[in-house]
C-alpha cells in the first residue's frame, strides 16, 4: 500500500494492484502519456527527490507537489525515524585518482543539488562532480591543477 499526499492536503491510498493497472507510457525522459477512463492525460515529472520521495508533477498544465510512502517508509516513520537522515553527505571525495581541471564554487557559496562543483580529469576523461544536496560550501581542500588520489577530500559542506 502506498500512501500518497498531493499538495500537502489530499491523501490517497494506492494499492500495488492499482499501481500495476495504470496505463502509462513513457514518451520521453520524465514525460508520460496516461490513459484513464478513456481520457488521455499528459504528465511530466519536473523535480524529484529520491531521499524524501517527493515529486513535482505537471498534469495537463497543472503542477502538483506529490509525496509517496511505501510500506517500509511508513514503518520507519511510525518508529520515529526519518528516511534519508543518515544519507546527508557532508563532504565530497575523489571517486578516482586524477587532476583537478576546474573548480566552480567558492568557500561560503550556497549550492543547490546537482550544481556542478568541480571537474576531475581521470584516464583522459573529464568527470563533472555535482552537488549531492543543497548546502553551503564550508571549505575547498584542493586547488585547480592539483593531482589527487582516490578518496582524497575535495570539498566540505557546512
From TrEMBL:
Pfam families: Biotin_lipoyl (PF00364). CDD domains: biotinyl_domain (cd06850). It comes from the Bacteria. The keyword DNA-binding does not apply. Residues 80-158 form the Lipoyl-binding domain. The keyword Repeat does not apply. Gene3D superfamilies: 2.40.50.100. Keywords: Biotin. InterPro entries: Biotin_BS (IPR001882), Biotin_Carboxyl_Carrier/Decarb (IPR050709), Biotin_lipoyl (IPR000089), Single_hybrid_motif (IPR011053). This is Acetyl-CoA carboxylase biotin carboxyl carrier protein subunit.
Amino acid at each position: 500500500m502506498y500512501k500518497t499526499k498531493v499538495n500537502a492536503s489530499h491523501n490517497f491510498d494506492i494499492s500495488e494492484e492499482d499501481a500495476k493497472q495504470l496505463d502509462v507510457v513513457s514518451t520521453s525522459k520524465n514525460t508520460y502519456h496516461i490513459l484513464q477512463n478513456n481520457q488521455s492525460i499528459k504528465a511530466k515529472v519536473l523535480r524529484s527527490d529520491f531521499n524524501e520521495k517527493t515529486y513535482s508533477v505537471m498534469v495537463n498544465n497543472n503542477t502538483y507537489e506529490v509525496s509517496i510512502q511505501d510500506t517500509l517508509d511508513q514503518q520507519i516513520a511510525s518508529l520515529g525515524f526519518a528516511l534519508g537522515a543518515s544519507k546527508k553527505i557532508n563532504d565530497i571525495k575523489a571517486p578516482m585518482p586524477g587532476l583537478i581541471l576546474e573548480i566552480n564554487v567558492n568557500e561560503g557559496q550556497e549550492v543547490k543539488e546537482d550544481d556542478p562543483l568541480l571537474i576531475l580529469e581521470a584516464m583522459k576523461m573529464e568527470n563533472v562532480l555535482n552537488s549531492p544536496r543543497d548546502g553551503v560550501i564550508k571549505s575547498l581542500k584542493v586547488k585547480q591543477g592539483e593531482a589527487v588520489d582516490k578518496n582524497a577530500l575535495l570539498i566540505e559542506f557546512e
